[in-house]
Amino acid sequence: MSTSHEPTPGMEKHPLFHPPEETLRNAHVQDYVKVYQESIDDPAGFWGRIATELEWFTPWTSVLDWDPQTYTGRWFPGGTTNISHNALDRHVAKGYGNKVALIWSGDSGEERVITYSQLLDSVERLCHGLHSLGLEKGDRVSIFLPPTPEQVISMLACARMGLIHSVVFSGFSEAALKSRMEDAQPKLLITADAGFRRGKEIPLLQTARAARTGILSIRNTLVVRRKDPRFPVDASSGEKAFDELLEKNRKKGSFPPAPMGADDPLFILYTSGTTGKPKGIVHVQPGYMVGTYLTTRWVFDIRDSDVYFCVADPGWITGHSYIVYGPLLNRTTVLMAEGAPDWPDPGRWWKLIEKYRVTVFYSTPTAVRLQMRHGEKWPSGHDLSSLRLLGSVGEPINPEAWMWFRNVTGGRLPIMDTWWQTETGMHMITPLPATPLVPGSATKPFPGVEVDIVDKNGNPVPDGESGLVVIKKPWPAMFRTVFKDPDRYRQYWTEIPGMYFSGDSARRDSSGFYHLIGRIDDVIKVAGHRLGTAEVESALVSHPAVAEAAVIGKPDSLKGESLKAFVILRQGKKPETEEELSSLRKDIRHHVREELGAIAQPDEIEITDWLPKTRSGKIMRRVLRARELGLPEGDTSTLED
Ligand code: 6R9
Would you say the CB of residue 420 lies under 6 angstroms from ligand 1? Predict the structure, then answer.
């Protein structure tokens, strides 16, 4: 086998990289081909064996109960378990209570270190507190917090009691938080007096207070006093201080974890789809637990000595699966950073890696490209020798960024380019540390996962040609439903009958490597954040000057994709001067920020008199995009004039 520095020639247009000897020797999975084949030949045997590595209160009666009529996969039916028990108590009982669970680095450099025992203690105290507030299994709790230990504690406490958490990214606007809560109907909202980013204060509580008005299901708001430990909460509207609730329950002792079965939800996470309304993706405890446990273990080759750093925010699925649940299930020391990668300077993350001797670094293509712009002097100014594995997620990573990431971290580390989705809950197409790599390819399916590239009718397309990415068999961390919207769940399985359709396109090369291309639906990934064009359009048309709007994604050298909006103005709203035009554009951008949040602001706004539409009145974004990018327009026979 060649060494890490010697690419194997002849592999399509990219070199093939092999893992360093040390990685190969220690990898949990040494022989991918064999393990994969076995997992596909006997999926129940495979997943069943993995599930026994975790603790169950009652054993399952079968591994999978699949209903092809409703596309419902019940994993480990008959069994009960609890993900917080497996992420906390299990380790403490085995004598790892003093192991560090969380290292937190705040926006302005504050540090907190929390052991597994301490984390369990906080979680149990919060459970007692939530119990005293009358919360019961199945109740929803919305969590609108910055990435802080309290966010993790809140998620785990909900999981322990069987409450369904719905974490809302703290960068979202009042309207975005409100619409998610209107759907989830939580009994409790957990937020903070403030968040911080680039040294600036973010008034989370103000946003939360405004968003909760009119949502009658909410009885209490729990306020983390992140900025001011003496901040006066408004008791008259049901606000309570998070720290006081924990303090009050200091001596209450353990809180028994609720037994959670195959149908019991762990969380709802809202994500963008092709309509204006985000979908509440529901995950259940047992299957999600097994899927995130194993993928974290095998993809990152977790060992007890690891310090694992994932740059996501728990407000997104990556944070749920690969900051909180997967790593803690594996008894990992997790480094969690609040704030921006380039504040106070572009060395922020590299400095953290050096300081905490990080071994596994899970980042994003946009962050890598941002670091590329700042230049090699930032990573090279730090001792990164502790690193042994890298990861990437959220969007395709271009080979140039892949090579840069590898080169600035010593030129020998394997990069796990993990393809997956909010819906899949866990990694689906991903390298393992011991498998060969092609820059820009997520390589091959994870064991137990059956992927294919097909056409619209579900027929496999030949290798080398692009097609639609489908999953052909159920997998443990699959989502259970779309909250209150079973039809939308069904659509995932009926668009290409009998298979789960991801919305992505890709091609598989002659060596079986998958090359992800991007979404083929009206979902855009801007800096790895998932946005629906329809959501942004409905925010645009709610501006008083806007009559109609269409949004497309354009290739962007930093963010992967950027947003361009085409806008038809209402009669009489047309600006007369350049100055008026520029101030109107600013105002529209600001309006979208207020409606959805900063991540959804269009990068470009073009005022137009015409939008391409079908005869039935649907905007043909495809045509707009082709014109914008100078590409062939494809079939325009349905175009109106
Ligand atoms: C985990 C996450 C899912 C969409 C997915 C795809 C894109 C994610 C990728 C990737 C290429 C990768 N995506 N990882 N594309 N290579 N390694 O991002 O979930 O926010 O639901 O987005 O992200 O387009 O369909 P989510």
Answer: yes
Task: At 519, list the tokens.
Answer: 């979404």
Query: Bridge-partner residues for 191, per DSSP?
Result: 144, 223
Q: Residue whose CA is closest, atom 16 of ligand 1?
A: 396
Fold of 35-340+419-508: Rossmann fold (3.40.50)
Supply the pTM of this predicted model: 0.96
For CA atoms 462, 505, 509, 10, the dihedral sign is positive
Residue type, 295: T
- C-alpha neighbours within 13 Å on the C-beta side of residue 100: 14
How many angstroms is it from 318 CA to the middle of ligand 1?
10
Cβ burial, residue 383 (10 Å; 0-12/13-18/19+): exposed
- The ligand 1 atom at the shortest distance from the C-alpha of residue 417 is 17
Q: Is 81 in the pocket of ligand 1 (CB under 6 A)?
A: no
Check if the beta carbon of residue 312 is closer than 8 Å to that of residue 327.
no
Cβ(333)–Cβ(101) below 8 Å? yes
Q: What is the 242 CA–ligand 1 centroid distance (Å)?
A: 34
Alpha carbons 364 and 30: distance in angstroms, whole number: 26
The rounded Cα 152 to chain-centroid distance in angstroms is 15
CA of 326 to the centre of ligand 1 (A): 18
**pLDDT at site 275:** 84
Cα of 394 vs centre of ligand 1, distance in Å, is: 4
Domain residue spans of the chain: 35-340+419-508, 527-629
| Distance from C-alpha of 555 to C-alpha of 537, rounded to nearest angstrom | 19
Measured distance CA(413)–CA(206) in Å, rounded: 44
Tokens of 639: 């175009």
What are the pLDDT digits (tens) for 538-578? 999 999 999 999 999 999 999 999 999 999 999 999 999 99
Question: CA-to-CA distance for 118 and 120, rounded, in angstroms?
Answer: 5
Identify the pLDDT of residue 13. 58
The CATH number assigned to the domain with range 527-629 reads 3.30.300.30
What ipTM does the predicted assembly reach? Answer: 1.00
Question: Has residue 9 got a pLDDT over 80?
Answer: no
| Three-class secondary structure of residue 240 per DSSP | strand
Using a 6 Å cutoff on CB, does residue 278 contact ligand 1?
Answer: no
Closest to 146 measured CA to CA, from 211, 98, 90, 202: 202
Find where tokens 């073009």 sit.
606
% of the chain at pLDDT higher than 90? 92
Q: Is 154 left (phi over 0), alpha (psi -120 to 50) or beta?
A: alpha
Same fold, 35-340+419-508 and 527-629: no
The HSE-up count of residue 68 (CA atoms within 13 Å, CB side) is 5
On the CB side of 208, CA atoms within 13 Å amount to 32
pLDDT per position as a tens digit, 55-67? 999 999 999 999 9
DSSP conformation class of 562 = E
Q: Is 320 in the pocket of ligand 1 (CB under 6 A)?
A: no
Cα 501 to ligand 1 centre (Å): 13
Any atom of ligand 1 within 6 Å of the Cβ of 504: yes
Check if the beta carbon of residue 607 is closer than 8 Å to that of residue 186: no
